[in-house]
Design a protein that fits this description.
Elements lengths: L2 E4 L5 H12 L3 E6 L13 E5 L5 H11 L4 E4 L14 H29 L3 E5 L12 H21 L5 E7 L12 H4 L8 H12 L7 H13 L6 E4 L1 H9 L1
Parallel strand pairs: 1-2, 1-4, 2-3, 4-5, 5-6, 6-7
Helix pairs in contact: 1-7, 2-3, 3-4
Length: 247
């Protein structure tokens, strides 16, 4: 039975991914900043742990409590939608702390275990924003694009130790909590001069025929974690798959 540690399981893709792995009979360590016991079905294969990927002490405590794992899924992330001109650099740094440095820190923390055992799988979840340019998400895209380059390099670095590293690239998911969870962070990031453009962007997203469901991402993460080939990237959702083909 595989033991899978997933970050960011309080909602959205992380929560659905935890459900998906549990349904496959895996032992799941679902982590989140503020643990909520009622989000997932009670199971002897489930352990819920507090984890803030921006804090080294929190990472160390969570991994110590988790014990040996076979798969790390770096799903925790925060969204941002707004004009870059109006975005404080402190907010940009917050995005990178979770989406970029948090992922790197988690990888660095588990690599010694994986390298020693000459096994292990790391799956880093990014975004379809890396596949094509989208407006009003410049810092978010930058944080995820950094992980794309990081993961591609890390895969080559760890291959000789029997460690596999993969990317999952979710498309646009209107049913997820991406916007809802970032409302406070995004306040004031659409100045009046940008409002007509922002409205046109929102209108375009509302008319999309192909979008990504949480189950699409969970299935792609499982596929990536099970893959033994040299495939690095796994787009998730009909829109992301279409973008990947045209990229």
């Amino acid at each position: 039975m595989k033991t899978v540690l997933i970050t960011g399981c309080s909602s959205g893709y992380g929560l659905e991914t935890a459900r998906h792995f549990l349904a496959q009979g895996c032992k799941v360590i679902a982590t989140m900043r503020t643990p909520k016991e009622d989000l997932l079905p009670a199971s002897g294969n489930l352990q819920i742990l507090p984890l803030d990927v921006t804090r080294p002490d929190s990472i160390a405590r969570a991994l110590d409590a988790a014990g040996p794992i076979d798969v790390l899924v770096n799903n925790a992330g925060i969204g941002l939608f707004g004009a870059f001109e109006a975005t404080p650099m402190s907010t940009v740094r917050d995005i990178f702390e979770t989406n970029t440095f948090g992922v790197m820190a988690m990888c660095q923390a588990v690599i010694p275990q994986f390298r020693t055992s000459r096994s292990g799988i790391i799956v880093n979840v990014t975004s379809s924003a890396v596949l094509a340019p989208f407006p009003l998400v410049a810092p978010y895209t930058a944080s995820k694009t950094a992980i794309e380059g990081f993961t591609a390099s890390l895969e080559l670095e760890l291959k000789g130790f029997g460690v596999r590293v993969k990317l999952v690239e979710p498309g646009y998911g209107p049913s997820t909590s991406f916007i809802a969870n970032g409302q406070q962070r995004m306040q004031g990031l659409i100045p009046e001069t940008y409002e007509p453009f922002a409205h046109s962007v929102f209108a375009g997203f509302s008319n999309l025929k192909a979008v990504t469901k949480e189950t699409d991402v969970a299935a792609a993460v499982l596929k990536a974690a099970s893959d033994t080939s040299d495939q690095l990237r796994f787009p998730a959702g009909a829109d992301a798959i279409a973008l990947a083909k045209s990229a």
